[in-house]
Amino acid sequence: MLNRILRLSIAALTATVAALATPAYAAVWNSDYDPPEFIGMAAFNVPDACLAAADNLYLVGTLPGCSVITVLSNVTTMPVVIDFAPALPSTDVNSYVVIGGQFVGVNTGIIGGVDVGDINYWFQFVATFTPGGIESPPSVHNLVNLFSNCESSGDSGRVSCGAPIATATQGVTFTRVPEPASLALILGALAAGWLARRRTIAA
Predict the structure, then answer these.
(1) How far apart are CA 203 and CA 47, in angstroms?
(2) I want to staple 144 with a disulfide (CB 3.0 to 4.6 A). Which of 32, 168, 176, 195 is the partner?
């Protein structure tokens, strides 16, 4: 049983390494949201230069080397599955939040739309940064808004929507995805452990 688990783990890590190796992004950050309203996961390509700053909210393009942040993917379930792949990648990212050198929040435009049945869906990330005080550290509050049946002006690119049909108000987090080199080390360690166990059993 253990051998099977190790083989499955190695196979999964191998696939992850291959997926992240092409193309090579500066860094990929996953955002998970799992509040009562709806769940989902998005991925962002964030140049490391964007994080070379003090704790604050920054406009994209403010820091040298941080001219664009890209939304790579977003899949939301509420309760139907909405895969926003047809509308992505998108560089409609206005600003972002850095705390402790980490990417912890982002403000996007309203991105979409994707048809599921008769409904056309759009999404938006919203981050509110609060500076730290003498006794409190800086913080960020993240939201994910979900819209339906918005209207987009082809000339100006402006998107007009009503109120969100749902908002994820908690549990919105950002985590840096291990780079291929780090994943390869984990893969190698798992493989070495599996081979060592086989040799011990054989002996």
Answers:
(1) 50
(2) 168
Rounded to the nearest 5 percent, the helix, strand and coil shares of the chain are: 25, 40, 35
Sign of CA dihedral 158, 160, 161, 167: positive
User: What amino acid is encoded at 42 in this protein?
Assistant: A
173 touches 127 (CB < 8 A) = no
**What CA–CA distance (Å, rounded) separates 129 from 149?**
29
Q: Mean pLDDT across the stretch 128-157?
A: 85
What's the pLDDT band for 172 if we cut at 50, 70, 90?
confident
Question: Would you say 148 and 124 are in contact if contact means Cβ atoms under 8 Å apart?
Answer: no
Tell me which residue has tokens 């390494």.
17
For residue 62, which of 70, 72, 53, 73 has the smallest C-alpha distance?
Answer: 53
Higher pLDDT, 60 or 195: 60
Residues 57-68, mean pLDDT to the nearest whole number: 93
Question: What average pLDDT does the structure give for the chain?
Answer: 78
Tell me the mean pLDDT in the region 177-192.
Answer: 53
